[in-house]
Amino acid sequence: METVRVLQVAGFKNSGKTTLIRTLIAEASSRGLRTATVKHHGHGGPPALPDSETDSMKFFREGAAVSAVSGDGVIQLHIREAETGPLQMIRLAAAVRPDLVLVEGFKQAPFEKIVLVRSAEDWEQLKSLPDIRLAITAGTEAPGAPEIIAREDTEAIRGWFGRWLKGGTGHVHL
């Protein structure tokens, strides 16, 4: 059975999830690792689509279950599927054989995760999420977290991530 390493970043809106994932991608890239990302679109409705007059979007609009277009080393893929959570998206991402998949959102998913904590109220709501490995805090406590790093301590965050990468955990069976 195939596996892929997955690390999830969870937190509430505007907590810094995207910024953190960009930092993790840069760190993984500096180590020669190929990274894929999977994100929950938490803004209501479908994500923004490309210009509806492109051929691939015409196909999609007419009911194609999948519309893909390729050019200059980039593939754009649109799939019409009932939302099923992150595992299906991870499986798709795994098709390009990344060393790591970073997941943004999908708080309840059962992956090893970093939680971003802005307040004591955030921690109260996040502390029961499955498989928390690190809490990144913005001047607040996170009692019971396995490890805590201050949000502004980018070097400590990068160091933690490097140790996580070397630790070999986070494998998800596809």
Automatic annotation (TrEMBL):
Boundaries of every Molybdopterin-guanine dinucleotide biosynthesis protein B (MobB) domain copy: 6-126
Domain of life: Bacteria
GO BP annotations, alphabetical order: Mo-molybdopterin cofactor biosynthetic process
Stored Pfam families: MobB (PF03205)
GO MF, one annotated term: GTP binding
Entries under InterPro entries matching the protein: MGD_biosynthesis_adapter (IPR052539), MobB_dom (IPR004435), P-loop_NTPase (IPR027417)
Name of the protein described by the UniProt record: Molybdopterin-guanine dinucleotide biosynthesis protein B
Source species of the chain: Bhargavaea cecembensis DSE10
